[in-house]
Amino acid sequence: MNFVEELKWRGLIHDIMPETEEHLAKGVTPGYIGFDPTASSLTVGNLVTVMLLVHFQRAGHKPIALVGGATGMIGDPSGKDEERKLLDLDTLRHNEACTKKQLEKFLDFDCGENSAEMVNNFDFYKNMELFDFFRDIGKYLTVSYMIAKDSVKSRLEGGMSFTEFSYQLFQGYDFLWLYENMSCTLQMGGSDQWGNITSGTELIRRKAGGKAYALTCPLLTKGDGSKFGKSEQGNVWLDPERTSPYKFYQFWLRSTDTDASRYIKIFSTKSREEIEAIESKHQEAPNERLLQRELAEEITVRVHSEAAYQAAVQASEILFGKGTTESLKALDEKSILDIFEGVPQATVAKTEVGAGIPIVELLVDKIGALPSNGEAKKMLKGGGISINKAKVENDRVIGYDDLLDGKYILVQRGKKNYHLVTVA
């Protein structure tokens, strides 16, 4: 597989240094991407660059994932409007471990010549003397060269500390170290990393008299055009504790046809022929959302598991009317809250439920699902009210046996109107 050609049809090339494709054609090439452990989880924005490494390995090359245990103490200023908050060592070490665990789901670390490797730059910075670094490395990149980079220019007016200004030099040294110690000749990353990456190729040229190459991919953007990964809000995380498998699955399932067509090329390992066949079949019946379902299945299974994917599908069916009482009772509290986030909610005292609440009283007085007793009785008679996905009648009394996960009751009016009742 020609790596560059593969990336082109997938829409994964933004910038590429001349002669990169010819260089890769010479044989197995080590190439790397850096991941700063500034959070305890990667996001789907980070996942774009992870897929660069996946496709790189599939093309027969050797992927290197560099975890920035040292540079993460500074934080990359690229694309940032203000100074990063510095993290303590314990937080960084925890984040490093989480990053490694997530990367291992995507890369093969035991496949012979092109096995993936993971490197932590803390290991080669921890014993380095400050003056040695600036004397032996710093003199090779001029201040005028570093200031010309977009990641620096965009911050000069508002102010930029020397700490963040120096990040470019450290990332350049990462590349030089990998070049000298692991024969790594290619660095990849998001398009906002072009300045940092080319600083590395320049340092290799000036310091080692060598030739190195660079390649970047477009950044993944949200519907409003903003970049994934810039804030806590709105991020889709790979960690199930931060974004549940259900919400993760729903993110892909709810994507527009245009976005889904773009996403499946980026995040799937299916061949061009397979993806084009899915897109063609999707066009025959767009309402069935085959493209979104294929995308959501593949990426949810890869990031989480087959079991998590199946649970997400079942949870989705519950929300859209196909679930059963049994499937609802199988959910834990987090899943219940995720699925019914945004629906009207009410709270009822546990003592009242213990004594038993007539269904009409619950619907009218307790949660306001219907305006009057007459309306409630009419809906009940017509089979329009369900408790935990089971239809109920006028004489139904709600008690402890109706609690989901010992705390919740799901009231459904008609097909799509829900109320989630918390019993406290």
Explain the overall architecture:
The chain is α/β, with parallel strands linked by helices and 424 residues long. It folds into three domains: 3-217, Rossmann fold, CATH 3.40.50.620; 245-320, Orthogonal Bundle (Tyrosyl-Transfer RNA Synthetase), CATH 1.10.240; 345-423, Structural Genomics Hypothetical 15.5 Kd Protein In mrcA-pckA Intergenic Region, Chain A (Roll). It contains 21 helices and 13 strands. The strands form three sheets. Strands 1-6-5-2-3-4 form a six-stranded mixed sheet, with helices on both faces. Strands 7-13-12-9-10 form a five-stranded mixed sheet. A two-stranded antiparallel sheet has the order 8-11. The termini are far apart.
Number of helices: 21
Instruction: Please tell me the total number of domains.
Output: 3
Q: Could you describe the largest sheet, including whether it forms a barrel?
A: 6 strands, mixed
Low-confidence stretches: none
| Classification by helices and strands | alpha/beta
CATH-defined fold name of the largest domain: Rossmann fold
State the separation between the terminal residues, measured CA to CA: 59 Å
Shape: elongated
What is the gist of this entry?
It contains 21 helices and 13 strands. By secondary structure, it is an alpha/beta fold. The chain folds into three domains: 3-217, 3-Layer(aba) Sandwich (Rossmann fold); 245-320, Orthogonal Bundle (Tyrosyl-Transfer RNA Synthetase), CATH 1.10.240.10; 345-423, Structural Genomics Hypothetical 15.5 Kd Protein In mrcA-pckA Intergenic Region, Chain A (Roll).
